Amino acid sequence: GIDQMRRSILRHQETEKQVRSANSELITAMSHDLRTPLTSLLAYLEIIDRKKYADEKQMQELVHKSIGQTMRIRHMADKLFEYFLVYATEWEAAALEEADGDLLFLPILEDYAYSLENSGFTVKTDFAQVSGQVNVNMELLQRALDNLYSNLLKYADREQPVCMSYGREEGSYRLSIRNGIAPDQDKNKSTEIGLHTCRRILQYHGGSFEAKAEDSEFSVVLTLPLEK
Description:
Helices cover 55% and strands 20% of the residues. By secondary structure, it is an alpha+beta fold. The longest helix is centred in the N-terminal third of the chain and has 48 residues, at 2-49.
């Protein structure tokens, strides 16, 4: 009986250690994720404040985008305590829905391209027809793309173009993002928590995530299985 009690205490201590580790990872991930909508919101408000918009219609569009980013921040704040409870099983509990591959990331990437161009980047896009359906959880995928967008703002070289492309490849949806690495990138050393989150999200969807830094270029490739 004493030996059983000893093993029970050891299991309890190990569980507490895992919970503390998960909570620490959660706080780091949430802090990282919150920076993305905050950065976009600040960029939109600065354009409005400096009156750099072309006309009243564009100003209203910027206001609409600002409200959207504010709602995302509010949603994250509302979910924070829930994440403390479910973080360890977040990926297993996420529901998947069928989505059109040709419309999957298009509005998100167009929004990112617009924001990047207003931040001084040149963006090149090459979006090919996919012609297939994908089972996804858009909330998780949005989180993955937000991490990539945040990394572009922090580490990409504004003197080199950001290249975004997607299309069908061997029965899979393939999204690629390439950019130059800023010369002063080492000053903002990455924890890579965002890339780790992206990898987990794509693996949960039955896809893959590859990130590669080579010479002065950084690239990521996301793949998702197509249903048709």
